[in-house]
Specification:
By secondary structure, this protein is an alpha/beta fold. 53% of the residues lie in helices and 11% in strands. Helix 1 packs across helix 8 and helix 3 runs parallel beside helix 4. InterPro entries: P-loop_NTPase. It comes from Humibacter ginsenosidimutans. This is AAA family ATPase.
């Protein structure tokens, strides 16, 4: 099974994926952004743009995720924003056409919630600050796209904790969580660690 966790920037995709990973036996997190960054580094700076626009990124994501899901004896977790209809259909549809059991979840939050969450991210590096500014600029298009039926299953997150979102997804996907919630102080430490590891 492949669980694709979609959502606007700031919706909680990464924290949800890594908390699912912690609580699910034999889960594996895979990040399609890494393929995108590798492709960008191979191109001249003047030609670099959104890596999702690269056909080779989309095809390699399909190939790699199909291989990961087939090879791994457990759920494969994919935290990745994708809001262009044609790319969504190409990737999610392509995986399903190859027999991959894709469970798609879109984490839904209001623009106000997303801006508040983004404002609390660690952004002490210049590149981090630029990334957060870009992420805030994407809020309107992400919220508008992800609200549509095409991007179901929707998981509202405005008034839910990460634990509640994780438990909702696991229940909907028919997965049994093997580990309990962390104590609040331990969860905050883990959240900080995951956040620092994923500063781009």
């Amino acid at each position: 099974m492949l669980i694709w966790i979609n959502g606007a920037f700031g919706a909680g995709k990464t924290h949800t994926a890594f908390e699912l990973h912690r609580r699910l036996p034999n889960a594996h997190v895979t990040d399609p952004e890494l393929l995108g960054f590798a492709l960008q580094r191979m191109l001249p700076p003047s030609t670099r743009s959104d890596f999702q626009d690269l056909p080779q990124w989309r095809s390699s994501v399909i190939d790699t995720l199909q291989q990961a899901e087939a090879a791994h004896d457990g759920p494969v977790l994919v935290p990745m924003t994708i809001v262009r209809d044609e790319y969504f259909d190409e990737i999610i549809g392509g995986l399903r056409s190859r027999g991959v059991d894709v469970r798609h979840y879109a984490l839904i939050a209001s623009p106000q919630t997303l801006r508040r969450r983004l404002s609390t991210r660690i952004a002490f590096l210049r590149t981090g600050l630029r990334a957060e500014t870009w992420a805030v600029q994407q809020i309107p298009r992400c919220v508008a796209a992800l609200s549509r039926d095409r991007y179901a299953t929707h998981v509202p997150t405005d008034d839910r904790s990460t634990d509640e979102v994780v438990e909702h997804i696991a229940h909907d996907a028919g997965l049994t969580l093997a580990k309990p919630r962390l104590a609040p102080w331990r969860y905050q430490l883990r959240r900080l660690k995951v956040g620092v590891q994923h500063i781009r």
